[in-house]
User: Fold this.
Amino acid sequence: MRQGTLRVEKPGEQLDPFFSCLGDAPSRALILDYDGTIAPFCENRDEARPHSAVLGALNSILGGEHSHVSIVSGRAINDLVPLISDLLLRPDLWGSHGWERMRVDGSRGVFSIPESARESLLLARDRASGFIDRCEVKPVSLAVHWRGLGCDERNALRTEVRNAWGVLSHSPAGDRHSENNDASGVLEWHAFDGGVELRVPGRDKGDAVRGIVDEVGPDAVVAYAGDDQTDEDAFAEVGRVGVRGISILVRRELRETCAKVWLESHEELAKFLTRWNKVCTKKP
Assistant:
């Protein structure tokens, strides 16, 4: 997992150069994580709808048709689509940390995974019988959620998951937040805000950002907003764009990150999106 330091800044004048580039840009890519960024966390994941202020600002951008808008989520696309039904237009969707894609026209696909990884996922699902009610099954991963549990319940579940999946997984290089360092497994073990995930290695949200930037063009202005450790790969990828790119951490508490700007709330994100739309629609 790529990470940086705590040298992020609160929004202010340091955003002026970025928005100056945005107004003159030949193309624009606005990329957003879903859970924790567009939508507040919810104990029942099926009820995690977009924050009202973010929804309104995002609909204004979609209606203006001046920006390529993408959602890059850890959720499977089938689980994501029902939650964004209030969006004016469906944006470009990347699910399962960049393994799935649904384009604006509805065409979709999943990147192929090795047979060994597919077999390990099936075995991991078989071993999840004791906590299957907490397990989210996705095309390239299994995620166990413990949001809402007390400390003792959470620790017990964490131990049960580690015992069931430990031999199937290893920690990705540099991920200090992983819970298992066994390098014998085919799958990777990722910690996230509210649980752990067993995932096929080979793609991440940074790959999705790279694919989007390749499509919108080399001179595009790019912004990515996310909240979790899984967004760090995307932040790092946006960092390669230089002054034409801005990476935004959206969360109440600051953590170690390579994002450049920190927004503490969904309301602050909505203000950023509103300014984005205003700059893009300003008449010459």
Observations:
- Residues 172 and 188 are 6 Å apart (CA to CA).
- DSSP finds eight helices and 13 strands in the chain.
- The radius of gyration is 19 Å.
